[in-house]
Amino acid sequence: MVEDTITDGKRIAQLLASEITGRDTGPLAAMSVVDADPDVEPTADGAFAYGVDRDDERVGDVAVQPERAYLELKVGVEAGAEAAEAADLRVRPKTTEPPRTLVFVESGAAVKSAVDVLVAASGGEY
Question: What global pTM score does this model have?
């Protein structure tokens, strides 16, 4: 059996959006995908694909690069970083004011872990 690994940034972002919007119970029920750009084209620096809100507060943004997507967490940056590290996702701080955390989602299989990161960053439990 041949297994395909999804490493296309735009497709990874689409899978993540589906996970976020596909739940009507639990901590994801309060989350929504906002300001989506369905025609986004990946760039080396990362092109904005959509934002993620929880109860009308921006949790983070999702950007796409050719071979991955990344979350830029705007809230819960420490909790999100800890959850990402625990899930073996690549993570790094972004030195801005206020501070942000970047979490890299490098395959379709990592989307579930990215959802856990969003939940942790927003103060919920999954």
Answer: 0.91
CB count in 10 Å sphere of residue 33: 17
Query: How far is Cα 75 from Cα 99, in angstroms, rounded to an integer?
Result: 9
Give tens-digit pLDDT for 89-103.
999 998 888 889 999
In a domain, residue 43? The reply is yes
Note the pLDDT of residue 30: 87
H or E element in which residue 114 lies: helix 111-121
DSSP H or E stretch at residue 15: helix 9-21
Q: Which CATH number is 43's domain given? A: 3.90.1150
Q: Give the Cα separation of 113 and 51 in Å (integer).
A: 18
How many helices (H) and strands (E) the chain has is answered by: 3, 6
What's the token pair of residue 115? 């959802």
CA distance 6 to 40: 18
